[in-house]
């Protein structure tokens, strides 16, 4: 866990927002989202100021066409892939024109606008309150799915909160949340880690945290709705081009600068044993530096 020394933008305000949640810029993120995304576009464009854009865009076009060709869409992801095809069809047509006729910076702006909109998350306090209310039922259902007697989620035998053991310097953590921006770097063992950690954050009375979620999790409208309104931003590991990677890093940097507490899984993937990872992926986590 890393805590910045800088005061978060809202730390001098009331500890609770008008929504009743502990203060975090994430609670009001929808009102600043367009500004943050514009900053990400401008910053990333500057990062490629001296780069050979024909080469950078050509490499992105090549890798993206391969990715799109290999993608296996369902009814819910088809629209996203169609938008990708339109974008890269436009980029391909643009690259065939001489640079004197079509400035490569305009093509880069198209790609950056597309990527930032895809990556950028949303946050709705109403969805957050609803989600934290139903999570105990969901966990109880998962833990009792093999039991016919307790299969129905409302037939809880014991509150999930009584089965969770939360230890450590929790009071100190609450105080730090009012002084700086917290980076939570937990081990990653299962697919429900993000939900479980988010719920524990809620139980501790901490403000909501942003986190990166694999684009593969946005495969059905229910998950897309909840994750898309709980501060998650998308991470597509299939996109390997330099433009996407830089845009993703700059988005993480931008929300940290806004004082948004964030969760990173430093090992990248899951650790089956639950042990602390010895090899860390410093891409997104390095944005704190």
Largest sheet, order of strands side by side? 1-2-5-3-4
Q: Overall pLDDT, averaged?
A: 84
Percent of sequence in beta strands: 5-15%
**N-to-C SSE series?**
EHHHHHHHEHEHEHEH
Q: Number of DSSP strands?
A: 5
Radius of gyration of CA atoms, rounded to a whole number: 21 Å
Number of H/I helices = 11
Unreliable stretches covering 5 or more consecutive residues = 8-14
- Sheet with most strands: 5 strands, mixed
Shape descriptor reads globular
Give the helix proportion (percent range).
Answer: 40-55%
Report, as a whole number of angstroms, the end-to-end distance: 13 Å
Which secondary-structure class do the elements indicate?
mainly alpha
Summary of the model, kept short:
Helix content is 49%, strand content 6%. It has helices spanning 29-47, 53-70, 78-95, 104-119, 125-143, 160-163, 170-177, 193-203, 221-228, 242-257, 282-285; strands at residues 2-3, 182-184, 210-214, 232-235, 262-263. The longest helix has 19 residues, at 29-47.
